[in-house]
Amino acid sequence: MDLNTVLEIRDARRPAPWRPGDAWLGGGTYLFSEPQPHLRRLVDLSRMGWTPAHRHPDGSLELAATCTIAELSGYARDLIAPAASLFEQCCRAFLASFKIWNMATIGGNLCNGLPAGPMISLTSALDGECLLIAQDGARRRIPVADFILGAGRKDLAEGELLRSVTLPARALACRTAFRQTSLYGLGRSAALVIGTLDPVDHSVAITVTAATVRPVRLWFPLAPTAAALREAIDAAVADGEWFDDIHGLPEWRRHMTFRMAEEIRRELVQEERR
């Protein structure tokens, strides 16, 4: 896509006042996928030199917003943690070519805020926390599940930058279960459900994405019954929050979410009994 309204590309390493028509440029796979007539200047983050993935001494994992899907997949292959397999499962949930894998970033996927964004699924399921930096340098942190407000909507002020997402060590130590479905074999996710089992207190979290306009993360002190899980999902997702587009009707997405959530519940219960 030729963005013929863009007059300038600025290196983000050289700060300058934010102005109308500016946009952060990470991998650019969304920006260059369709017309962006409101843009006048791109602020390029690709030379910031942020470490794609960094394990902190406390065991938490910080993922830079500029970390590409290919870099995340490569890092996860050597990650020693019970939740490591979930990274590759979510990377493979992309409807994307190898070209997209090598350019698309975690930050871009989150900031698009699309229901089918698999990096939203991964980071919200693992209790991720966004680090946001305002134009005046002020920093704030917000859970990924709260960062996404709706389809394409996020808690991001004008000019604010998503710097990274941090996954706590406790989440990385969880056993995980993953289910995803779409209308087509290689189609966009229509429903994606992830379950986690905490090995310390045996709590269970069920995270619903793709089928809903925002991530829905449900926490249970112990594995719920089938009825309790269904009731919790029903209470957490309003009728208008089941996503509706050409990739699946809301009623079907809701049905598949209940089905996959129950499969995950049973899988985690069996895991706990081992």
TrEMBL record:
Superkingdom: Bacteria
PROSITE patterns: FAD_PCMH
Gene3D superfamilies tied to this protein: 3.30.465.10
MF terms (GO), sorted A to Z: FAD binding; oxidoreductase activity
Ranges of residues in domain FAD-binding PCMH-type: 1-172
InterPro entries for this protein: CO_DH_flav_C_dom_sf (IPR036683), Diverse_Substr_Oxidored (IPR051312), FAD-bd_PCMH (IPR016166), FAD-bd_PCMH-like_sf (IPR036318), FAD-bd_PCMH_sub2 (IPR016169), Mopterin_DH_FAD-bd (IPR002346)
Protein name as it appears in the record: FAD-binding molybdopterin dehydrogenase
Species the sequence originates in: Streptomyces yokosukanensis
Lineage, broadest ranks: Bacteria, Bacillati, Actinomycetota, Actinomycetes, Kitasatosporales
